[in-house]
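Posting this for the archive.
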Amino acid sequence: MRFLTSALIAEGSSDDRFLPFLLRRSLEDVCATDFADDVDVDQVTVLRRRQRPPTVPEIIGVVEANADTFHLVFVHRDQDGNTDRVRREWLDPLAEAWGTSRPERWVPVVPVRKSEAWVLADGNALRSVLGVRWADADLGVPGRPRDVERIGEPKEPIRRLVDRLGRPIEDFYEELAEAISLDVLTTVPSFLAVRECTVRAIADLGYRPRRGRTS
């Protein structure tokens, strides 16, 4: 039995209420389906020092302050529709600063718009958690899950849900993270990219791939 520890450095405090639970489920699924080792997946620990999005030096500083504690570190940044800027100003500098000698492996978590878009991928999960019978269109859920990445401002349909419910949607984030279908989410390209990066990172840690699953 191997023990896998991980951490999350997210862009905003609301992401801390959603992403850790979703990423742990994804980790458990990856370990069960792609690797031959028996793995005990620990909860994803939130690392946060400031309310604003951390800079690359701050991310490295947080990792170094927790050296030898985590095997994987998920680092989240919303693209807000600007893929080139995020790569130029954040992904590439972070990869360079991280280097190749650190024992931890890092996994970028980069929604095309915002992580809230992933909340809108699964209408059944929303209905179950919110206790409503509204149609997908009334929930702001698109016809195809992958089309959540086309929603210019995913916080808007969520705001409308809040107005109808009379409660902050953040109150439901943990339950939604536990309820959203991973099969549905893997049809969303940005989430699929997270899963694929996770597989590569775990393989790089020396976990044994299942035959035919991981090279």
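The chain has ten helices and four strands. The first strand starts at residue 2 and ends at 9.
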